[in-house]
Amino acid sequence: MASPINDARASERELVRAAQAGSQEAFAGLVRMHQRRAYAVARAIVLSHEDAEDAVQDAFLHAYKALDRFIPDQSFGAWLNRIVSNAALDLVRRKKVRDADALPETVALPFRDPAVAGELRDRLTVALGRLSPRQRAVIVMHDVQGFTHGEIGSALGIPEGTARSDLHHARAALRRLLQDLRTTP
User: Fold this and answer.
1) Which residues contact 96 (CB under 8 A, 6 or more apart)?
2) In angstroms, how far apart are the furthest CA atoms of the chain?
3) Other residues' Cβ atoms within 10 Å of the Cβ of residue 159
4) Are 45 and 55 in contact (CB under 8 A)?
């Protein structure tokens, strides 16, 4: 009996092969299949909605142009996430200015007081902006979006152990940057 995961992989492989044969509809299907995850990867790195959209658009364009070099038996999603993360990191390097855009509404805040929530969100955004792009990407991808260490490593082109280490160092840096927010019992 075929599992839904195997069916999805087979469907993805069929779309990849059709896209490699020149089907724009097949490539559009791949875009629909992976656009949310691609956006999540880019947003974790750049933190600005507009920059994330630009990075994703650049990544899909690059993927389309490089599709003939993709081996269909591999994971298209992992290959695409690597392209997306590179596009987002390139965008960060080009801008050299970090945008302090609001965090997505999916981020859980440690306090429920609405009067304090805006200030905490602003402080967290500023603190995240002070991390390196890779540390910021790792912490948001893991703690906000639920990526595994292996998925983060694959997306950013680093070993899984390096993703774990980067996450540890990013959390430590955030603790230092936000230490005055801690309350004593």
Assistant:
1) none
2) 64
3) 13
4) yes
